[in-house]
Amino acid sequence: VASPAAVLNITGAADKELTHGSQGFNGSVLTNSGSIFWLGTGKIKLGDGAQIVNQLSFVAQNHAILGYNGFGNVPLFNNQGSFTKIASGGTTRVEIPFANSGTILVNSGTLRFTSSFTHTGGFITLSNNATVWFDQGLSFPTGILAGVGTIEGNVSNGGTISPGTPVGSLVIDGNLIVGNQLGAGGVTVTF
What we know:
50% strand; 15-stranded parallel sheet
């Protein structure tokens, strides 16, 4: 557990692993109630059903991979706080399932989700013509999708789309399905 005042810096070129330690299936959980800064070229690899539960701030300042080490149950990144991508000119890849009920900020470069992405509310915001990429598409039943940049992948939207901050384009490079197929609720597009 990283406590509210704690800062954890994950740095260097060597890969870091979070597992149960014995290739079991009772994954370790890193609960972040403080700030995690991920720098350097080293991958973060999770296995054995391990989880990172981000309750406050996780900042990716690199072009590395957050992935699965191939052992045991598939891991999960559970974002309840703020996940920020700030390194420009390259791609940070999230190759494990990602559950978001918080805020994703892509301030520069590309943030790519290659595995499943579950969004249950909150915000996804792009700035500085950054890119967020969803290989398996983005189902966005509620919340706000905003900013200036590009969304790669199909988007199924039931929330609010708000391009520009305050002026600019939010490009969706894929299909956009607007509205709730069940007929409840609606979609708001703010210009």
